[in-house]
Amino acid sequence: MSDATLIWGAGAIGGSLGAAFLRAGQKVVFVDRVADHVAAIRTRGLRIEGPIFEDTVAAPAFLPEDLTGTYRNIYLCVKAQHTAGAIRTLAPFVAPDGHVISAQNGLNERVIAAEIGADRTIGCFVNFGADYLEPGVVHYSGRGAVVVGELDGGIGPRVQAIWNQLKTFEPNAVLTDNIWGYLWGKLIYGALLFGTAVTNDSIADVLDDPHSRPVLTALALEVGRIAAAEGIALQGFDGFDPSAFTPTATAAETARSFDLMVAHNRRSLKSHSGIWRDLAVRMRPTEVDAQLGPIVEAGKSRGLPCRITARLIELIHEIERAERPLAKANIDELAAVAARETKA
Question: How far is CA 11 from the centre of its chain?
């Protein structure tokens, strides 16, 4: 068994984490399915650009089919829609006493736990800004919340060791006994980001737009209503207060949360979300089904339809298929659904 940390997915999140661990003197092995990226890391190292730190780090890198051995400490850092396939491929490389840390967006811990067991799955929440630029190059653009916790809320030596490792990347990393509260809080924020991504405007500009705020509020309230039904105690992060988008929130609390999000995003060098980048730059499918799909399904199972969220998923797919442009008119499409919900 290797004592190195295995980073499965060496893109924006995995590359940034792995580079920080290497700079702290830790052993890291990268795995990625993009052959050019793996080849670049092998020959030139992984280069991190951006305002936080700039460096080129060296570490072994493999395609999944070339990896051997087992690992105790593994970070899964792939896009949410690739989680099921990745964890099936990854499972044989998890040591008998090993674990997988889900450094992703969404509720992927559920998918991982179904494959390798909840006792070998660690919840993780990340909100820092980073982008994969080209083979061998990642841009780490802005610090953000990093949180880790056991799925059952326990605080033991294993999760404390992971927390200490994450602090070499983000000194303010949080160890929590309520990781689900953070993950659901991020789902509400994620829904808002998907809403901003249907236009070409920046995150801050859409969140600050008086015309967009009412429909974005209705969208976030759909997710907050499901979280409340699931009995989740929501946790805030980076100026975002998810409780401002729950059934008991006041209009003033919601407006204040929007204002704080705008201020946070205007300070960030990353003006647009990774979702927008997938749609406008990379022209590839987003994580919308993996992130927002479970919300719609949970709503159906509880008799709480999430029609705005469902329409947003459809809009994203239409944009992915080049059937719809990125435009402010897409916000109007969501607003029309919200208006029908209000009248119902």
Answer: 13
The structure tokens listed for 100 are 């997988």
> Please, which residues have CB within 8 angstroms of residue 63's CB and are 6 or more apart in sequence?
31, 32, 33, 35, 38
Q: In the structure encoding, which two tokens stand for residue 118, read together?
A: 């909840």
Q: How far apart are CA 147 and CA 122, in angstroms?
A: 11
pLDDT value at residue 271: 85
Mean pLDDT of the chain: 94
Q: Alpha-carbon distance 10 to 265, whole Å? A: 25
CA distances from 39 to 22, 32, 111, 154 (A): 18, 10, 30, 40
Residues 258-272 pLDDT 10s: 998 898 888 877 788
Confirm if 42 and 61 have CB atoms less than 8 A apart. yes
- Residue 86: per-residue pLDDT: 97
pLDDT of residue 142: 84
**Do 48 and 12 touch, CB atoms closer than 8 A?**
no
**H helix intervals, the chain:** 12-23, 35-44, 83-90, 108-116, 157-166, 179-196, 203-208, 213-229, 251-267, 274-277, 288-301, 307-320, 329-343
DSSP 8-class letter at 91: G
Rounded to two decimals, the pTM is 0.91
Q: Which domains does the chain have, with CATH numbers?
A: 5-177 (3.40.50.720), 181-343 (1.10.1040.10)
pLDDT less than 50: residues of the chain: none
Task: Identify whether the C-beta of residue 158 lies closer than 8 Å to the C-beta of residue 119.
Answer: no
What is the C-alpha to C-alpha distance for residues 300 and 240, in angstroms, rounded to an integer? 27
